[in-house]
Amino acid sequence: MVGVGGGGGRPLFVLFGSSIVQYSFSNDGWGSILADIYARKADILIRGYAGWNSRRATQVIEQIFPKDALVHPDLVIVYFGGNDSMGYHPSGLGPHVPLPEYIENMRSIANYLKSLSEKTHIIFLSCPPVNEEKLRQNTSNALSELARTNEACREYSEACVNVCKELGLKVIDLYTEIQKRDDWCTVCFTDGVHFSSEGSKIVVKEVLKVLKEAEWEPSLHWKSLPTEFAEDSPYDLVAADGKSTVNISQCTFHREIQWD
């Protein structure tokens, strides 16, 4: 249950979605980057479920985010759409969700999360594009043909963006943001669908941009949050003068990217 996290006064962030979320700590993924940025500032939990669509999410959202939890999230980042947008299978099985139902499901997810508490903020990620050719090459023989197209991704992405605008929620248009990079098709995915480290960096950049610009009180941007146990200590590293110590609790020298 989400309610067991968020101790010690730190804000609680929950990443909720399908495989884009479940795999977000793999391959230098966007979840792991955020966890590093928010180390000693916020707790980040993954509630990611590979293969899920928005229909499945609405069926169990009350179990994942129980209203009687002791602690509710300060931020939920939501992603569903890639599986919903897959083509319909003649058997009636599979993850496809018709666009009108997807819209209603996303609205339902948003409204439920908004009802958790006054402090709970939400950011939606829209459906990103895919590398169709690479996806076909990587399709397992154990699966039927995966009918994923960029045109369908665009439709579901636009639908997600429109729902969020209607509800006054923050949304990141990943379909557009990913394609701003000229070589997106070859460098942003590991398998044509899931993000490589380069694709994840785009997600993180946009998430931080939203958090920095959001007029939320208190701000959830990492530079605005206090660092846990940041006070000076005689047990810190000894300075060159041999008489004092150096507090490195907020140093970011270890990061290849100095995130804003």
From TrEMBL:
<dbReference type="InterPro" id="IPR045136">
    <property type="entry name" value="Iah1-like"/>
</dbReference>
<protein>
    <submittedName>
        <fullName>GDSL esterase/lipase CPRD49</fullName>
    </submittedName>
</protein>
<comment type="similarity">
    <text>Belongs to the 'GDSL' lipolytic enzyme family.</text>
</comment>
<dbReference type="GO" id="GO:0016788">
    <property type="term" value="F:hydrolase activity, acting on ester bonds"/>
</dbReference>
<dbReference type="Pfam" id="PF00657">
    <property type="entry name" value="Lipase_GDSL"/>
</dbReference>
<keyword id="KW-0378">Hydrolase</keyword>
<dbReference type="InterPro" id="IPR001087">
    <property type="entry name" value="GDSL"/>
</dbReference>
<dbReference type="InterPro" id="IPR036514">
    <property type="entry name" value="SGNH_hydro_sf"/>
</dbReference>
